[in-house]
Amino acid sequence: MSKYNRLTYRDEKGKAWAKLKTTCTTEEEMKFGRRSLEILTQYEESGLSPAEVIELTKEKEKREMNELSTKNLFTKLQDRLIINLQDNEILCPKCKGLRFILVEEENYSHIDSCRDCYNGKLYICKYCGKANRTDCCDCKEAREERNNNYLQEQKENNSRAYQLAEKINYKNYNDRFILPNSDRVIDIEELAEWIGELLLNKEDVPEYLWALDNERYFFIDLKTIIYDNCGDGYEYMYEHLNIKSPLLTQAQKLINQWQDEQGESLYIFSEDHKRAVVIKDLVDEISECLN
Fold it and tell me: What predicted TM-score, i.e. pTM, was given to this entire model?
């Protein structure tokens, strides 16, 4: 290896230290930087360039890592791991941010996932101070905050949808309604009773409700059921069956008749966010009657 001017070496080391102090923002980064400079200092008398020193250091560390026991390897990885933490986060005390732990038995050891965290961090609840694997604490205050955030998000989404929706006066709407935050389907008379109760209790009444949308939940098709069940059978099983049998056709007709008899029991109902039924006039009418 070529000799390297000692004065130049020291000059570059000084520049490196000056740069280090201005670029390192955390204690972990400073710790790593100081270790690198200590290595350069050890090789100052060798006549090697900093680049050659760094290359030798990498080879040395690689050899040391290969010679480490599994336990020491875990300790070394934990010491060198750098994780950015927010104000409400701490390193997991069990795995120290590695997300894995070393389980040592009597005659052997193995690596396992850390059961105390998901990503090497724990989240400290700002209300009760409990450490959790996620930022969703189960305390009363945290649950209330999540619920309020959810309701606020729903309100904003509904407001945006209402701006784009078709507006229908309740007098021109001939279907039923779904009450807000409920799966209860009601008709116009029940809606009037609901509005009256809210007004008597001095609660807020919405100016609109979403129109009702319905969809058949399932349809029983015998050929589809037979085809699906043949999937685990022998090869070309479905092709060997008499799918055109009059008995199968007759059975399907009976099933269709049964499905028709079930009526709305086979349907699921939801809000149609493309159509808004304006009930403000109805609210005003009921309010006048109560006064």
Answer: 0.53
In a domain, 155, yes or no: no
Q: Which residue has the higher pLDDT, 88 or 45?
A: 88
137 located within any domain: no
Q: Write the DSSP symbol of residue 240.
A: G
Query: Is 174 found in the same domain as 88?
Result: no
How is residue 187 written in tokens?
């008709």
Check whether residue 231 and residue 277 sit in a common domain.
Answer: yes
In a domain, 105, yes or no: yes
Query: Is a pLDDT exceeding 70 seen at residue 14?
Result: no
Give the domain range for residue 48: 6-67
